[in-house]
Amino acid sequence: MTQVTALPVAENALRQQNAVFIIAGLGAGGVEKVVSLIATAWITKGWQVTILAFDRPEDPIYHDFHPAVEIRRLGLSSGGGKIRSVIMQGRRILAIRRALNLLQPDIVISLLTKINLLTLVATIGTSHKVIVSERNNPQAQPANAAWNILLARFYGRAEAIVMQTRASMDCLPPNVRAKARIIPNPILPPQSSQLINMERRVVSAVGRLTYQKGFDLLIDAFARIASRHPDWKLMIWGEGEMRPALEMQVRALGLNDQILLPGTSEIPGGWVHETAIMALSSRFEGFPNALGEAMASGLPVVAFDCPFGPSDLIIQGIDGLLIPPGDVPALARAIERLIVDQQLRKCLGSAARRSVSRLTPTRIVAQWEVLVRECLTT
């Protein structure tokens, strides 16, 4: 999709648009953080913003949302066997359709692969304009083949498809790539970033405790250097289904005192003030928000150069260290290099802060507004 310049005629109209976001839930994930930033920015411009989430009304909300953002929680979380899952997807489609018919938004924005498909199906036969956004690596995610077949068919119904990196465009069916726009995530340093202290002896990693995040690889890497640096710890922040396996791995290595899994930080970004080095060990990504937040906070970072995202944020040796994907010995060497060289930590951290300034919420929200304007004027 070619870049579209601002249209003065449509600008005033955009200030009072009615936008609906459709997401899985309001937990501690990167999608939720991005939606909170965009929704808040649009509310301050006079837009009406509603968020439809499939989690339960009693589930905690992790990120801050402007009080004027309307949040509707549908209580339709997935789970169970195949039959129950099919029934649940049908209920979700009906719930989306009913909500949109009631809200009558000018623009609908769905995020994440399966929710994109459900939204496109739910809007069949309506005049709703839908922007879908891929937030991960569809080629690497475990998914039922039927979902991919349906996505290839239904993505053509979207007004636009937002991808986060240029490389991720290859994940789209060729027939819909003309609809794609690359918009990276907005990066905002956590509020606690002023507490950064390079003398802390902690390597931190952040994310859901899943296979994707590769924390098992990170534990193996840290174990290779732990005995040489007994005053350093590895802290893996987050929750997820791999917690028991990771805890067992740590116990088997005899590193319970040096490798900690403290859970999700109590406040967004709270892990930053505990950290001297941030490590990203993901097997694949969409766009690693935690990596960007670490860089914006002035932390030195080391990351597997996995598809997609790390190489879009890091210039090797300038503002961070990139490691060949899955190379555990190389990851261990890179972490140790940062451990022993405090001056390198400071240099990389300072460069990282400057580097990600191009991804401020103001700049990224402006790109979303250009896209919305384009969709509403075609």
Explain what you see.
37% of the residues lie in helices and 15% in strands. Strands 3-2-1-4-5-6-7 form a seven-stranded parallel sheet, sandwiched between helices. The two termini are 13 Å apart. The protein is α/β, with parallel strands linked by helices and 378 residues long. It is built from twelve helices and 13 strands. The model is unreliable at 1-13 (pLDDT under 50). It has helices at 8-14, 30-44, 82-103, 113-122, 145-154, 215-223, 243-253, 289-296, 310-313, 328-340, 342-355, 361-376; strands at residues 18-23, 48-53, 70-73, 107-111, 130-133, 160-163, 180-182, 202-206, 233-237, 259-263, 277-280, 301-304, 321-323. 43% of the residues are buried. It folds into two domains: 8-186 and 360-376, Rossmann fold, CATH 3.40.50.2000; 191-359, Glycogen Phosphorylase B (Rossmann fold, 3-Layer(aba) Sandwich).
Query: What is the architecture of the largest domain at the second tier of CATH?
Result: 3-Layer(aba) Sandwich
Distance between the termini: 13 Å
Total E-strand runs? 13
So what's the overall shape?
globular
Q: Strand count, sense and closure of the main sheet?
A: 7 strands, parallel
Separate helix tally: 12
CATH H-level name of the largest domain... which superfamily?
A: Glycogen Phosphorylase B
Beta-strand content estimate: 15-25%
The helix/strand class is alpha/beta
- N-to-C order of helices and strands: HEHEEHEHEHEEEHEHEEHEHEHHH
- Over the alpha carbons, how many angstroms does the gyration radius reach? 21 Å
Mean model confidence by pLDDT? 90
The structural domain count equals 2
Sequence stretches where pLDDT stays below 50 over 5 or more residues: 1-13
Q: What is the CATH topology of the largest domain?
A: Rossmann fold
